[in-house]
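task queued by scheduler; priority normal; single chain, no ligands, no partner chains; default sampling; output format set to structure tokens
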Amino acid sequence: MIETEHLQKKYGDLVAVKDLSFKVESGQIWGLLGPNAAGKTTTMRILTGFLPATSGKAAVAGYDVFEKAEEVKKEIGYLPETVPLYPEMTVEAYLSFVAEIKQVPKTRKKAAIDRAIEITGLAAVRKRLIKNISRGYRQRLGLAQALIHNPKVIILDEPTIGLDPAQIVEIRQLIKSLRGEHTVLLSTHILAEVTQVCDGVVIINEGQLMAAGRLDELTSAYREKDGVYLRLKKIDNEILNLFRQLPGIDGAAQEGEEIRLEWDRNTDRREEVIKFCLDKQLGLLEMRSLALTIEELYLRIVSGGVEQ
């Protein structure tokens, strides 16, 4: 649904996007992740037709972005970082204006406005002036204008920036509700947003692709060891030493109120660990997988300079 091949954008001698290739399948939500000035916004502007690329290819909904720009724009809903609103208009009048710009047929315009308002939860403020609604509602309105023509693809640039915690939760829930019916690409530098909203991620740094894939696949690929976290009734040095002597265990360490056990990625020691805990009557309360967090993944790829 969204695909780039060897995409490049130069401003003179500055290379903002360098040889960028990735693909997002239909109906999924993917994050475009990277530090400030990584090239996220430039990439989105190219995909939406706001900027030409210097070289490479890009396709959205099956259309070439450069050769079929008008067709692409019909299939894209775009929320830029700064929402394009007119404070003196009412919410409903603004959406009517956007629907006209996006060439929604007159016979379908009212239904399109009602649908966008319902999806984004704007019914309570549809008659109010935009200048009199909260920032959270303004962000919802930005999403509504991106949805007004029912596009196949939605591109969101920092959709939760500047919102308070409650508003962030609301917008994230709204974005998740788009999964399946729409393909969503959202840029963010908030790592928690990726794990809570996205199916996969594209990580870029200095305009260059560092990694791309489903979150579970990436965390598995970059994890050096397998293992588990254990929560027991009691943790002391004697118990830690018992685990260290267990065949196949490469490491045992206390982290807060848990024990972190590690072993080789090609083996699975969970059954042995459970049996060991029961035999030694260690009071096993909880066992969970030693998964690589998005923070660890990001730092390993970006800060460590790892490239996939």
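post-processing summary
- The chain is about 35% helix and 30% strand.
- Residues 30 and 200 are 5 Å apart (CA to CA).
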